[in-house]
């Protein structure tokens, strides 16, 4: 049988595979101590109003500064954290840290924190959000929680109740990566989201692709009718920024405006922009 399977049989014994398994195992072990060793940090990426270029807020994006491997992206360790149950304490740390750091910014500037679907289903989420707000003193109206469609995949009342409880605290609820899940439009009827972020896969094809243009325009129109703020993610150039503005998105976020930056650089970015105003269609001279 091994012969019949040919090369595939050997795949499981390939040294790269063993290395990858070991890397995963190391990641798991390291992640366990990362909180205690204070190895996580949040970077912040601005959300810009498309009409006047003001900074509406920042999205907190977690990174792991690994002592040997350097900066590790959330895509590499959040799934491991979800699998091991570490997502709950890491998520709490992110909430608390984001709220605390946002307290140093002007009152009008919001803070968005990502909540994983695993973290969402944990009983402690509402309590964690309430505590983060109480301990840091952040006004609840400045906090946005970003969830993905997968949270609503199981059509049960528990998740809807959690969303309502979070809303009752005064925070805003955002649907992240809109358009990448299933029956996306149905979810918007089931729960009144405050904001929808259109996934960057649609923005990437603008302005040329007629399909993406139609989708973005339709979502923006729906946002207008339902009173939902529409944000375009992954705006990478001027043509895309012009397109999402023209198609009716309220906010834009992406490398063209600013990459995610360390917390220490946020106040300078805000003041350099004089009240957070976008100059000349760009946040930072030349590069962005
Ligand atoms: P997300 O919430 O959809 O965040 C947007 C991601 O797109 C970020 O990647 C950001 O750096 C990237 N991005 C922003 N502008 C552009 C652009 O113009 N072009 C491209 N190609 N990418 C852009 P990042 O920071 O690697 O985060 C990846 C994902 O990890 C996030 O996706 C979010 O789902 C998750 N994540 C990040 N921080 C946290 C956290 O604190 N908790 C949880 N549970 N998940 C987090
Ligand atoms: Mg997000
Ligand atoms: Mg997103
Ligand atoms: Mg995403």
Automatic annotation (TrEMBL):
<protein>
    <submittedName>
        <fullName>GGDEF domain-containing protein</fullName>
    </submittedName>
</protein>
<feature type="domain" description="EAL">
    <location>
        <begin position="24"/>
        <end position="274"/>
    </location>
</feature>
């Amino acid at each position: 049988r091994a012969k019949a399977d040919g090369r595939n049989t050997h795949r499981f014994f390939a040294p790269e595979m063993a290395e990858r398994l070991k890397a995963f195992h190391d990641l798991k072990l390291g992640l366990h101590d990362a909180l205690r060793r204070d190895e996580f940090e949040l970077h912040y990426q601005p959300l810009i109003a498309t009409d006047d270029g003001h900074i509406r807020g920042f999205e907190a994006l977690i990174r792991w500064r690994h002592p040997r491997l350097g900066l590790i992206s959330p895509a590499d360790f959040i799934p491991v954290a979800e699998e091991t149950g570490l997502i709950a304490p890491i998520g709490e740390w992110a909430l608390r840290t984001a709220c605390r750091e946002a307290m140093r910014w002007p009152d009008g500037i919001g803070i968005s924190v990502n909540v994983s679907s695993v973290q969402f289903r944990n009983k402690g989420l509402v309590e964690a959000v309430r505590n983060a707000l109480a301990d840091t003193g952040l006004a609840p109206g400045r906090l946005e929680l970003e969830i993905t469609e997968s949270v609503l995949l199981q059509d049960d009342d528990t998740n809807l109740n959690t969303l309502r409880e979070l809303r009752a605290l005064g925070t805003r609820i955002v649907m992240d990566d809109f358009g990448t899940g299933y029956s996306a439009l149905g979810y918007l009827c089931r729960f009144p989201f405050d904001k929808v972020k259109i996934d960057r896969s649609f923005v990437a094809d603008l302005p040329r692709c007629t399909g993406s243009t139609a989708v973005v325009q339709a979502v923006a129109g729906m946002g207008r009718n339902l009173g939902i703020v529409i944000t375009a993610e992954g705006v990478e150039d001027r043509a895309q920024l012009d397109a999402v503005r023209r198609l009716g998105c309220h906010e834009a976020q992406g490398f063209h405006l600013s990459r995610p930056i360390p917390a220490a650089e946020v106040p300078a970015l805000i003041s350099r922009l004089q009240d957070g105003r976008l100059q000349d269609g760009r946040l930072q001279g030349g590069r962005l």
